[in-house]
Amino acid sequence: MRVLVTGAKGQVGSEIVAEFDRRNSGRDSRTGFDVIGASHEELDVANRDAVHAIVRTLAPEVIIHPAAFTAVDACETEIDRAFSVNFVGTRHLAEAADSVGAHLCYLSTDYVFDGTLDRPYREWDDPNPQSVYGRSKLAGERALDASSTIVRTSWVSGQRGANMLKTVLRLLDQSDGPLRFVNDQHGCPSFAKDLAPTIIDLALSRLRGVFHVTNQGPTTWFDFARTVAEFAGANAGRVEPITTAELVPARPARRPMNSVLENAALREIGHALLPDWRESAAQLVRQLNG
């Protein structure tokens, strides 16, 4: 089976390629996966001609599409870029996939919700994004037909790219002063290495519709940072709680105050849920600290 993975050097894309490599290990080439990982430098999804050319040339059976412009605050001013990559780029891939009969799996986000519910968001809840990033990713979802797979996740950390876990470790090393993190935004941390196998399973099974896929256990950014500090052997008492309103400077993009995603569809099909986020955070801290 031939598979095309976009954003192959990114946080999630790199783990998807690595997971395919693990699955190929020891397999006969006739039963393995022919995986083409295309980085942004190799494939700009906003370029329609480039997208159609690579898909037409490779003729993949499955396309997994985690590539995105994910700088949430930058999206507020770089609006054209956000929609060009997250919406138009996804539409290009949908067109190209349809032209060769490939199944498309798209990685989306908790930012499609407004965060006002007092319970976890389920796959069938109505989206209402409050940021340019969220609106552009929802537009990407709506560019797909009913046969596609949409995977929404949240608060992603991994070995590659910038993420909050790396930020906490960096701040712990930079000074001995207090570190302040918001305690009124609730979500589920997710880890790229855990996400990759489930994204692949859903894509290869050509399962239709929306799936929420996160590590288990809701938390706040304050609790997340304090826990990471503990795993790093640092003084967790340095991590102090503040409210979103107390952030200085204020963040340009509005965050959903509750973006806990219930993995209802994943549970319904009997697929194993991802492990508790603390287990995966501890593992990633050990990897990053060598």
Short structural summary:
Helices cover 39% and strands 16% of the residues. By secondary structure, the chain is α/β, with parallel strands linked by helices.
Cα-to-Cα separation, first versus last residue: 36 Å
CATH superfamily of the domain at 2-158 and 191-216 and 259-274: NAD(P)-binding Rossmann-like Domain
CATH architecture of the domain at 2-158 and 191-216 and 259-274: 3-Layer(aba) Sandwich
Helices and strands, in order, run as: EHEHEHHEHEEHEEEHEEHEHH
Based on secondary structure, the structural category is: alpha/beta
The strand order across the widest sheet is: 2-1-3-4-5-10
| Number of strand segments | 12
CATH topology of the domain at 2-158 and 191-216 and 259-274: Rossmann fold
CATH C-level category of the domain at 2-158 and 191-216 and 259-274 = Alpha Beta
* Biggest sheet record: 6 strands, parallel
Low-confidence stretches: none
**Total number of helices:** 10
Strand content: 15-25%
- The pLDDT mean sits at 97
The protein's oligomeric status is single chain
* Cα-based radius of gyration, to the nearest Å: 19 Å
- Helical amount: 25-40%
The best one-word shape is: globular
Structure, explained:
- The protein is an alpha/beta fold and 290 residues long.
- The chain has a domain of 199 residues: NAD(P)-binding Rossmann-like Domain (Rossmann fold, 3-Layer(aba) Sandwich), CATH 3.40.50.
- The chain contains ten helices and twelve strands.
- The strands form four sheets. It has a six-stranded parallel beta sheet, sandwiched between helices. Strands 6-9 form a two-stranded parallel ribbon.
- Strand 4, helix 5 and strand 5 form a beta-alpha-beta unit.
- It starts with a strand and ends with a helix.
- The model has no long low-confidence stretch (mean pLDDT 97).
